[in-house]
Amino acid sequence: MKPIEKLESWSDQYQSGWMDALRVILGLLLIIKGFMFIADTTLLVRVLNDLFGITDGIILAHIIATLHLLTGFLIAIGLATRVSCLIDIPLLLVAILFVNSNLGNTGIGELIFSVAVLLLLILFFVMGSGKGSAYYYLVNSKRSRLTDESKADYKGGSVAAPLDKEANIIQ
Prior knowledge:
mainly alpha
């Protein structure tokens, strides 16, 4: 058994419904933060300029906002959760170490929020997406079609595209 399969088996055993709700909330928080970055790009550009000396940071600010939107959506639906967390963890580390630490007492709430989101990202990087995720549904629906006893009368297609003969995964 590969290490990733062991980790998935272990996380499936210990993950419950409230973890799925927490994953969705984390994804929504990242989406909201992405929209906040889009709404006020001047703040992010100013921070990039002041701390890192990036004079034309508008492109980087939009990349950061887009990454938050994309990874937040993927985490919320539970698809590519570990990869999304792996993308967001360095962004949050930079935010905590450089940005929030320089804000002083005025940004303590933002620092606590960033640390909490970082801890949740690490948690879901280890635990995976869980049983209430799109990934779990897709993997288990594929397994159920592969082990279906009615292979003889299977005409092709899938749940998403029942008339698509090319979607036939049964060999």
